[in-house]
Design brief:
single chain, 41% helix, 147 residues
Length: 147
């Protein structure tokens, strides 16, 4: 057979509805991205840091704040012994790109911090459903998603 299952399960996409906000992306990050990233145990982390999901971007249709991007950056610093690269690659609203880039750079320059305390999130029903479905579909590849 010419088919291969090598790499199957390594791409994890979570569809979010237009107008998603911080609680949506952070719920996805905490309930899907973080468990998969921790289980994967990367040697380094390379982030294609596009800010078209930032609030104010005319094309992204999302409303993520600079603090949400900074929170994700802080968390990613704990992976791979801090070997993290953020490569700016997108966004269409210069003030949002500036604010989000600055928030991420500040998060990179801060002294290492203990993990943030869990925060009560209030994602929209579509995000809750998407998280549940992605966890179900990927739990056979990533057992941490099954818990």
């Amino acid at each position: 057979s010419t088919q291969s299952t090598w790499g199957k399960g390594y791409t994890v996409n979570v569809p979010l509805e237009p107008e998603a906000e911080d609680d949506d992306v952070m719920a996805v990050f905490e309930q899907v991205v973080a468990p998969v990233a921790e289980a994967f145990k990367p040697d380094f982390v390379l982030v294609s840091a596009g800010f078209d999901a930032a609030d104010g971007d005319p094309l992204g249709g999302m409303h993520y704040t600079p603090e949400a991007f900074a929170s994700m950056t802080r968390w990613l610093r704990r992976l791979a012994g801090g070997k993290l690269v953020l490569a700016l690659e997108g966004g269409y609203h210069l003030p949002a790109i500036q604010a989000c880039s600055e928030a991420c750079m500040r998060a990179l320059l801060e002294p290492p911090q203990p993990p943030e305390s869990p925060v009560q999130r209030n994602p929209c029903p579509g995000t809750v459903a998407a998280i549940k479905e992605v966890r179900r579909l990927h739990s056979s590849f990533w057992p941490a998603l099954g818990t």
